[in-house]
C-alpha cells in the first residue's frame, strides 16, 4: 500500500484529482462541488489490487459521496489512471488516532452504491437529509404509498400505525422511509426520530445483551417518537430479537408514537415470524409500491437530469434508458449516472450509440427473455385454471379471460408476432390474438381489478 503523502508522488495524484474534480464541478454545479467533492483527497493506493482509497473529512460526508458519486469517481479515476481498478471512499483516519477503524467499502465502477451509513444528529438518528419527498417522483405504481407516507409524516396523528411499505428491491422503500423522517422532523423539530435497518437493530440488540445493558437499549428505543425500520424481512428467525421487537412495537404503538417498516414481501409472507409480531405489523396500513412503469421511469430520469444538472440529454436517450432499464429504479439511476460520468470525463456527447455501448452489461441483464410457456404457467397459477385451458377450445368465461390475459402478456413481454402467439395457444388465428390484446388493453383502463391482476402478473414475470 502506498500512502499518498508528500514523499510518494502525492503531487501527481493531486494534479490528476484536480482535473477530475474540475470536470465534476461543471457537471454538478458549484454548490455540490464545494461542499462534497472538493474536500476529497487521494489517501492511499494499493498497486496489487489497483484499489485507490479516497478520503473525506468525516464519516458522514464519505457516506454521502459514496452513495451518490462512487460510480462517477471510480470511472473518472480509471480513465485518468488506468492502473486504478476500483475506488473506496472513507473518512480520513485521524492522525492522533491511527488505530481508528475505517469503513471503506470497495466500490467497482458499475456496482450499485451502498446505503448511506448511520449518522447521528441530535434527535435525528441516522436520517439521510437528502432523501426527501420532493425528490421522490410519483406515478400510478407508487402514489398510494407516497400519500400514506406523507400522511405518516404530517402534524396530525395518522389514522393508521404502523405503516408497512412493501416493494421489490430498488423501488424506493428506503427513500420514502428517510423522507417520512425528514418531513416529520420539519413539522416537529423536537421529535426524536430513529432510522434503523432491521439487521442493525438485531446486531445492536445482541451486543447490548452481551454488554449487559439491554435495559438501556430498550429504554432508548422506546423513547423515540418515530421509529423507521428498514428491511424487516431480515429480522426473521431470531426469536429473542423478535420478542424484543414485539415489545418495542407495543411500547411505541401503545404510546401513540409512529412506526414505519419496509419489507420486500407482505407481512403474511414473512416466514418464521412470530404470529403476534405478524398481527402487529399487519394491523396498520400495508402500502404496496409496484415496479415503476415506463412513464414513471421516464419521469425519474428527467427529474434526475434536471436536479443533478447533468446538462442536455437527447430525448431518444431518455426514452431508451426508460424503456430498457426496467428491473428497478436503482439500476435506472445507476445507469444514467454511469453514462453521464463517462460522457463528461471523456468529453463526448451523450448519444444513443454511446448509451448502448457503455451500458451493455446492464442492458443485457435487463433483457431477460420471458417465454410464452412461463407466461402461461404464471397465468394459470394466478387464476387457478388448468394449463390445458390455454390451448383448449372451451369458451367458458372462467377460462377465456385468463387465456386472453396470457395472450396480452405474450405480446407485451415477448418479441413474438401475433401468428406465433396464436400457434402457442392451440393454433388460434392471429386475429383472435389481436382481439385479446386490444380487449385487455381496454379493460385495464376501465376495470381496476383487471389492471391489478395484470400488474401483479407483470411484476411476477419481470422480477
Ligand atoms: N420514485 C422515485 N423517485 C426518485 N428516485 C427514486 C424513486 N424510487 C427509487 N428511487 C431511487 O432509486 C434508488 C433505490 O431506491 P431505494 O434505496 O429507496 O430502494 P429500496 O426499495 O429501499 O431497495 P432495497 O429493497 O434493495 O433496499 C435510490 O437512489 C432512490 O432515491
TrEMBL record:
CDD domains: AAA, Bac_DnaA_C. InterPro entries: Chromosome_initiator_DnaA, Chromosome_initiator_DnaA-like, Chromosome_initiator_DnaA_CS, DnaA_C, DnaA_dom, DnaA_N_dom, DnaA_N_sf, P-loop_NTPase. Keywords: ATP-binding, Cytoplasm, DNA replication, DNA-binding, Lipid-binding, Nucleotide-binding. Its main location: cytoplasm. Residues 344-463 are annotated as: Domain IV, binds dsDNA. Residues 92-121 are annotated as: Disordered. Residues 1-92 are annotated as: Domain I, interacts with DnaA modulators. It comes from the Bacteria. Residues 371-440 form the Chromosomal replication initiator DnaA C-terminal domain. The keyword Cytoplasm applies. Residues 101-119 have a biased composition (Low complexity). It is found in: Cytoplasm. ATP binds at residues 170, 172-174. Domain I is involved in oligomerization and binding regulators, domain II is flexibile and of varying length in different bacteria, domain III forms the AAA+ region, while domain IV binds dsDNA. Belongs to the DnaA family. PANTHER family: CHROMOSOMAL REPLICATION INITIATOR PROTEIN DNAA. Oligomerizes as a right-handed, spiral filament on DNA at oriC. NCBIfam families: DnaA (TIGR00362). This is Chromosomal replication initiator protein DnaA. It comes from Blastomonas fulva.
